[in-house]
Amino acid sequence: MKRTILITGGAGFIGCHVVRRFVGKYPEYIIVNADKLTYAGNLENLTEIENKKNYKFEKTDIVDKQSVVELFDKYNFDGVIHLAAESHVDRSIASPDEFVFTNIIGTVNLLNAALNRWKNDFEEKLFYHISTDEVYGSLGKEGLFTEETAYDPKSPYSASKASSDHMVRAYNHTFGVPALISNCSNNYGPNQFPEKLIPLAINNIKNNKPIPVYGKGENIRDWLFVEDHASAIDLIFHRGKAGETYNIGGNNEWKNIDLIILLCRIMDKKLNRAKGTSEKLITYVKDRPGHDLRYAIDSSKLQKELGWSPIPEFADGLEKTVDWYLTNTKWLDRVLSGDYNKYYDQMYSGR
Ligand code: NAD
Ligand code: DAU
Description:
Elements (H helix, E strand, L loop, with lengths): L2 E6 L4 H13 L3 E7 L19 E5 L5 H10 L4 E4 L6 H6 L2 H22 L7 E7 L23 H20 L3 E6 L1 E3 L8 H10 L4 E4 L5 E6 H14 L5 E4 L4 E3 H15 L11 E4 L14 H7 L7 H14 L1 H8 L3 H9 L3
Parallel strand pairs: 1-2, 1-4, 2-3, 4-5, 5-6, 6-10, 7-9, 8-12
Antiparallel strand pairs: 9-11
Bound molecules: nicotinamide-adenine-dinucleotide and 2'deoxy-thymidine-5'-diphospho-alpha-D-glucose.
The site of nicotinamide-adenine-dinucleotide (NAD) has 31 residues, from α1, α4, β5 and β7.
């Protein structure tokens, strides 16, 4: 079946894996990647598919209503996979406004454009909103987030994502826009911007710089390899039901400090350093304000209803990730030039 699908944020970390997957696997689809190319968007992530006939790039700011309307007028989309967002919790604490603009207003602009184009015929249309487990707030030592867990976002980032989820559900309920949402746990893998824990730690270990561990390193995250997220998105886009929510997670909980130690061991091996060398770089720093203690996802609905399951063991996925960052030095150097050092100094000095 021919389709024209808008993927927003396709030059970012998860988006580029989704775009590459869809362009490669579905040559009969036209994939339009609309991205503003913020600091987190990088077209180098897409060089392997940029010349494919079924791929198009549009530099678009989703906060700009008129640009979004023009995009929908130019292409007759029948599907939207919406990933574009401001995604880093620390940045949302330093400067929340952009999170409100992009994550909330940007999402509403897309919903309005989809509603206006589709309102006379919702058949075979789908608005798929990519969200996060952080909307559910923070868990104690026990329990898992299910699709029924009440929303309780704690950071400006998660509050903005929660707002956008509510707007998507409201457009589905009130106007009938065929929309669905998935809420995923922490992703890791190639192409992640090195402001996030795993690539930041890999880069610091490589350069013999301190590895900043917030608080006591006891916060827990449920890690999922990014390609497993992309495979879930593929499945949900094609087989998920409008109006539904699907939780996606790795069933793979790690305390930050244990994860960093595992990463240090992998890095020692890869860099031919004596065992224990990288661990000496671990440095406890001031905690993130309002730091959520634990996230963990129950993805049984997705597993049972759509037959999804994640593939690599964490140690294998992590090793693949380390290999990618150690091989793709040019990518890393380019990403680290520009404003990265300024950001790093602002975020970590005085911590
Ligand atoms: P990212 O920060 O790596 O990429 C975001 C992309 O969105 C970038 O390419 C950026 O240029 C683009 N963008 C930002 N503002 C824009 C705007 N105004 N208009 C158009 N494009 C804009 O993010 P990511 O980690 O790939 O996350 C993608 C989505 O998945 C987000 O919605 C995020 O909330 C969600 N999510 C991420 C994770 C994770 O662990 N990274 C987990 C669950 C859900
Ligand atoms: O749970 C899904 C979310 O995961 C996504 O929605 C977000 O977009 C994504 O950024 C991620 O949020 P986290 O805040 O969990 O990810 P981050 O990599 O920033 O941090 C992971 C954990 O490591 C968290 O407990 C904070 C801690 N940390 C982070 C950094 C950057 C450190 O201890 N030191 C650091 O330098």
